[in-house]
Design goal:
Elements (H helix, E strand, L loop, with lengths): L1 H15 L5 H12 L3 H26 L4 H10 L10 H32 L1
Length: 119
């Protein structure tokens, strides 16, 4: 249930807000619904990854220019060892790492702050 709520509310908030708006959504929903900090981290990280990877694949599919090559070029800096890796793979890896950490820690923080105020 928490996973679905984060995806729905985070998707709506991401449509109107900045890229990082999924973190406050994870924080607030985990404050309200999560049982433990461990489950809050896992569910929030998974929901944020699903949301961001889905959106990045959507943007890659509908863009008229090859945006993934341009963005991957920023991160690789022309490194010869990374030229054989598909550019979308580099993008998905970066998106996964950033979204999992930001969403997971925000969800875990929501539970920890709730526990702090309960005690």
């Amino acid at each position: 249930m928490l996973y679905i709520l984060i995806i729905i509310i985070g998707g709506i908030a991401s449509f109107f807000g900045p890229w990082w708006v999924v973190a406050p959504v994870c924080f607030a929903l985990c404050w309200w619904k999560a049982k433990t900090a461990k489950s809050a981290f896992g569910v929030s990280a998974l929901a944020a990854v699903t949301l961001w990877v889905g959106y990045s694949l959507y943007l890659n599919a509908v863009s008229e220019v090859n945006m993934s090559d341009k963005i991957a070029g920023i991160f690789t800096g022309g490194a010869a060892s990374l030229e054989n890796i598909p550019k979308i793979g580099i993008i998905i890896t970066i998106v996964t790492l950033v979204s999992a950490l930001s969403g997971g820690f925000a969800g875990m923080a929501g539970v920890q702050v709730r526990n702090f105020f309960k005690a």
